[in-house]
Specification:
- The protein is 73% helix and 0% strand.
- The protein is mainly alpha-helical.
- It has a domain at 1-158.
- Helix 2 (12-41) packs antiparallel against helix 13 and helix 12 packs antiparallel against helix 13 (244-276).
Length: 282
């Protein structure tokens, strides 16, 4: 996104159109399916929750935790953060056009620092500390904004780092995720290490890049959004499974099957149609 907005300077109309075509259709299909299922099988439908979910606001409204919903939408919190961050990045790209990319770099760095400030404020200043503050965009956008800031600084001031840095950074983040018991350390260290890994990946050894170019991994990358969207349904249904061990295998198979059908028969054709339609200028 940083390259598209700040380096290639894609027009915002085109940027928003492509993002909406990529994200919204299957997302709205998903929430219609799960909320309809909730109404039919659980006898539950909350208009405010449906509306806030559809508009990427569920991490703010209603105030009850998104994980306490009886509808399988818990994973949507990260999509909320992503969409809010896209809006912020697009606004900062206007700043870059008006005042230069250097100003945008500084602004992105400052926004990353603000996420840290909000984290500390929410964690140590009740009553905000009682909520799932880490899901709020002003906190959770830290990894994305930090990565974008690093990208722009490295783009201007290229670094020559040892080839092991991207892989070591990733392994370090993975290790912290497994062994760390501190939310503070986990959140910031994992974010920083993954940002470094992502932005130095081109320096990785050739065997790493070749492995990541594997056709199977590339397919998972292409269908990752579809898998992300639909997997929660099968995770949710697991609470009703009699034999959970067998169900987990079935759930993985069904997730991949549904995600594949969603991508090839709904998302991709609709996205091509939406992006391919001529823009009407007024």
């Amino acid at each position: 996104m940083s390259r598209i907005l700040f380096i290639e300077k894609m027009p915002l109309r085109t940027f928003y159109r492509r993002r909406l075509a990529r994200i919204v259709p299957v997302f709205w299909l998903y929430i219609v399916v799960v909320f309809l299922g909730g109404a039919l099988f659980l006898g539950e439908f909350r208009p405010l929750e449906f509306l806030s979910t559809a508009l990427f606001l569920r991490t703010y409204f209603p105030e009850t935790s998104i994980f306490k919903s009886n509808i399988p939408i818990g994973h949507i919190w990260s999509l909320n953060v992503e969409e809010h961050s896209y809006i912020l990045l697009s606004l900062l790209s206007l700043l870059a056009i008006r005042s230069g990319v250097y100003t945008a770099r500084v602004a992105l760095t400052a926004c990353s620092a603000l996420c840290v400030v909000f984290f500390i404020l929410y964690k140590y200043h009740p009553p905000a500390a009682q909520s799932l503050f880490i899901l709020r965009t002003e906190v959770a956008a830290f990894p994305l904004l930090l990565s974008c800031a690093i990208f722009l600084w490295v783009e201007k001031y290229p670094l020559k780092l040892p080839a092991f840095v991207p892989l070591a950074s990733f392994i370090g983040a993975f290790g912290i995720a497994i062994f760390s018991t501190s939310v503070l350390i986990s959140f910031f260290c994992i974010s920083a290490l993954l940002a470094v890994s992502m932005n130095t990946l081109n320096m990785a050894p050739s065997w790493v890049l070749k492995a990541l170019s594997n056709s199977i991994l590339r397919w998972f990358g292409v269908c990752s959004y579809s898998i992300y969207i639909w997997q929660q349904v099968f995770y949710f249904l697991g609470r009703y499974a009699r034999d959970y061990e067998y169900y987990r295998v079935l759930a993985v198979i069904l997730t991949l099957l549904v995600a594949s059908c969603s991508f090839y028969f709904f998302e991709r054709p609709l996205r091509k149609w939406l992006v391919g339609r001529p823009l009407k200028l007024r």
